[in-house]
Structure formats: structure tokens, C-alpha cells
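Protocol step 6 of 9: fold each sequence in the batch and record its C-alpha cells directly after the sequence line. For illustration, a two-sequence batch is reproduced in full.

Sequence one:
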Amino acid sequence: MSVKRKELEECEEKGEDRKKLAGNLTNKLVEEKNEEEGKIVRLLEKENKSLKLEIEAGKTNMKELIEKNSQISGQLEEQLEKNGNLTIVTEENIKRHEALIKTLKAQHENILKESEHEVKALKRQAGNSTSIMKKEKKEHEVKVPLLEKETSIYEEEIRSLKLQIDEGKADVKAVTARHKQIFDKLKEKLECPVCMEIPRGGPVYVCPNGHFVCKECKSWSCPTCRVDMEDGKSLLAVMVIENIEHRCKFV
């Protein structure tokens, strides 16, 4: 009986441990999912901020070049106005100004191309980060149902264990009640009909008809059926009284 009770307690502890494990796994996966999504969002925000800064810097450079070009054009126009009264403009000055204009245009175009390349590269990086985030999100979406399924399995096992434990408790209770009933009947049969006490030790005398009497109250005849007692002793009665609980003799 004690072994069965111990097994039931172990089953109950095992069920609680499984439930705690399932809850811990679910909480851990949800925390990892939130942490990964937060990292990806922070990375995208950082890259977008860097991209905006670089675009603004490119716009500023372009604006400076345009202003510089306008200043040079204005200087050329002023120079031409100053030399408007001259009848001869040297070919060397004209070529020098044209070369300067071409150089400025080439620099302007190079800066625009570099800015476009940087913008495309940043867009590709942002696209890669987004694809990685979507992939990880899909993986989490796959893992979460699996964990939920495992959790439901654990909960079902725990419910089954609880039912088994309840059934075991009911069986133990029934067995305990049955044993108590049997012991009560044994005590009733072992009670001495003279002193109305259950013997605390042997020998226990028995008449030919099976009636018990303690050693203190034994006489020549059976107090129940009045036949001769003789010297019959019950070994079974001694074994029973040695294994049952007795009332305190001082009460």
C-alpha cells in the first residue's frame, strides 16, 4: 500500500515537472522571438538613418557644386562684360574657360553617379535585412505551433496522470477501508469474553469449538460454550495481536 502511494506521488511530481518544462520552453521561445525582432528593427532603423544622412550629405555636396558652378559662371559673365569693349578675345582664354566648365560638369556627374551607387547599395542592404527578418519570422511562426502542440500534449499527459492519481487515491482509500474493516472484525473475534480486552501477547487459548480466551482469564471450561478448555493454543491469534494496534493500557 505504501509503495503504491509512493508511485502515485512520483507520478504527480513528474506531471508537475513536465508542465513547468513546457511553460518554460514556451516563455523562452517567445522571449527569443521578441528579442530577435527587436534587434532586426533596431538594425533597420540604424541603416535607414545612415542612408538618410548619406543622401543628405550627397545633396549638400551637389548643392555646393551647383553654387560653385554658378559663381564661376557669374565670374565668367562679369569678365565677359568687362571685356565687352575689347575687340579681340584671345583663343587661349576661351579654351581655358571651356576646359574649366567641362571639368566642373564632369565632377558634378561623377558625384551624382557615386551618390546613386551608394543609394542602390543601401537599398540592397535594407532589402537583405528585410528578407532575413521575414525568414526568421517564418521560422518562429513554425516553432510556435510546434511548442503549442507539445504543450497541449504535456497538459494532456498531466490530466491523465491526475486522473490516474485520483483513481489510485480512491483505490488506496477503498483498500484502507477494507483493511480497517477486516482488522475490526479480527479485534472483535480476539476480544476475551471475560475481561472484554484484546490480549497484548501470547499465548491465546482456544477451546475445541474455536472460542478464544486470554491467559489471565483461562479456566477449566470455555466461558462461551462451557466445554473443557484443555490446553489448545492459537498461533494465528498470537500473530494477529502482535501486528495490530492496541489501545493504551494506561488510558
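Sequence two, same batch, same settings:
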Amino acid sequence: ILFCVKYRSSGINAEYGGTMQKQMTGKECSHAQPVLQAKLVPLSGNLYIVLCSFHGIQIHSAVDQHQLIFHHLAPDPTKPDEEVFAQGVAGVGSDTIAVGLSSGRILIFKKESGSFTLTDTLQGHSNPICDIRASGKRLFTSDDNGCILVWCHKSDSWDLLKTFEGAGSPCSTMAVYKDYVIGGFGSGHLRIFNYVDGSLVAEITGHARWINAIDVNSSGLLASVSEDTVVNLWDLKHFSLFHTFSIPNVQLCGVQFVQGSDDFAVSGYDMKDIMIFKRKKK
């Protein structure tokens, strides 16, 4: 059904397909800190790069790489031996970026006068945030215990709408499709929840190992990748497996559909290629 075309990731510009123009460095960092997550976030026709690390959160303009805000992460004085870090990023609406923390809190940054300001902090999780997704005014957050929370932005406040309790395995990745929020878990399970009525629609043993990434396109095709080297495609309209294949000896860590199509990209740990899969025409 599918064939693979490989593109070399070295020297690729994600937006334009050109070469790297500039390397960004956090000016506030007094010593090197690993970047845990880097995400390109579109807001009102503009693109922003969000960098998360143990040191803090940086938001840059993707056009000129100018740093718009640096938010330092201070250690918890009651837990001096625990590392503090940021993980999980999503753009909400036209002017808001949400970032998760190891404390379980979610920081809300709003674009104001050409920069970003911390305007709110959401508290509902008791474990480190793993992933954040958004759909319209709704925000979906997951944590290290497998809990998924659904928030809604109303006027100047955030309301907690639904709580899906975890079972101890991290919900490492999520996707949102229509009234469903889909979670990929460290146990290899996929769980599909209806976030409107709060029901568990389906639970699938999707992989033999940790699920690192999932994504869904507008036609209801869900892709999931795992450390077990397997790529699975699921039909959400019928909650069934559509296609499966393995990429031998590769711990798969990323998957993303190409916008407006069934084509998708897959990345692997310590692999220099980004693999683009396309459906064969009959």
C-alpha cells in the first residue's frame, strides 16, 4: 500500500527546504543545557519556535530568531534533589502558547505588544507533564501517570472540563480528532476517549513497547510509532488497524502527517534520515 522516499535531515529547513540560516543560543544560559523539546508553533499567520530545557523556556520568532521571552525555571525548595524541566508545548487560539512543567503545572503565555507574557498557571496534574495538544479553545494535557485533562478557555479563565484518570503508565503522546482525544502510552496501549461525554471509546494494545508519537489527519487516519520498530496506521472511523509495517533496527520516535494528505513522515532515534511515506495510487 505504501512506499518510502528518504530525505536527508542534515541541512534541511523545515519551512522552506533550504539550508540552516542561524543557530539559536539562549543568552541567559550560563552553561550548556540540553534542549528537551523544540517546537514550531503557528499563531495568527506568524511562526514561533519554543525551546524547552532544564534551564527554562524560550520563545523565539521563527523569522529572525529574535528571542521574545525567556522564562527561568526555579527549583522547588521543598524538593532540592529533583530536576526541574519543561516539556509539552501547544499553541492555543490566535495568541497563546501553553508549556508543561515537571511539577505538573501548565504555564500560559499570551502574545502582547510584540512579546509574550506569562498570564496564567494551570494546576490539575500531580505528575510531570508529558504532552500538550490543542483544538480550538480546548487544551489537552497528559502526564507521567497516564492522566489526561481537558481544559477550556472562557473569557479570561481556564475551566477544567474532563479528567481521564491514569493507570500508572505515562501518556507520552496525544492526538485530537473530532470529539476524540487519543493517548499513546508507555505500556504500548492506545486509548481513545470521547472528551464530550467522558467515555472510553476504545482501548487497543497497539505496540509491544513504548509509544513515542502519534498523529491523526483530517480523514481519520491515525499513525503511531514505537520503540518496537513498528509503524501502525489505524482507521478511526471503524477503530480498526488499517496497515502495519516495521522499519528494522530503528527505535521510532516521531511521526507527522503532511498537511492535507495521507502522506506522513517518520523519524528514528540516532537516524539521520527523515522517511516520507506515500500511498501508492491504484
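Proceed to step 7 once all outputs are recorded. Observation for sequence two: The longest strand covers residues 35-43.
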